[in-house]
Amino acid sequence: MKQLKLALLQLAVVMATIYQANPQRFIDCIEAYYRSDLVAAKVLALRIVFDVFASWVLIMLCQPKGGVANDK
After folding, report:
1. Are 3 and 44 in contact (CB under 8 A)?
2. Contact at 8 Å (CB) between 44 and 32?
3. What is the pLDDT of residue 72?
4. Residue 67 pLDDT more than 60?
5. pTM to 2 decimals?
6. Are 64 and 71 a contacting pair, CB within 8 Å?
7. Is 19's pLDDT higher than 80?
């Protein structure tokens, strides 16, 4: 359960970081959805998902082998 909480926290941090780095990508996705341009909305959403996944993988690769240092 602790690993799941840690993973969700990391995912939230990644989403917030990506949003701060490029908020226009989120805005464009929402605008495309409301224009009923579902193809563009899906493409933009996939780009966001890919950014999140790639960032999360980098975080997981940079963690120490045993997990978090204070994990007991």
Report:
1. no
2. yes
3. 52
4. no
5. 0.56
6. no
7. no
Q: How many CB atoms lie within 10 A of CB 44?
A: 20
How many CA atoms are closer than 13 Å to the CA of 12, on its beta-carbon side?
6
- Hey, how many other C-beta atoms are within 10 angstroms of the C-beta on 31? 14
Quote the pLDDT of residue 66.
62
- DSSP label at 1? -
Q: What is the DSSP string of 13-72?
A: HHHHHHHHH-HHHHHHHHHHHHTT-HHHHHHHHHHHHHHHHHHHHHHHHHS-TTS-TT--
Structure tokens at 70: 């204070």
Question: H/E element holding 12?
Answer: helix 2-21
Amino acid at 21: A
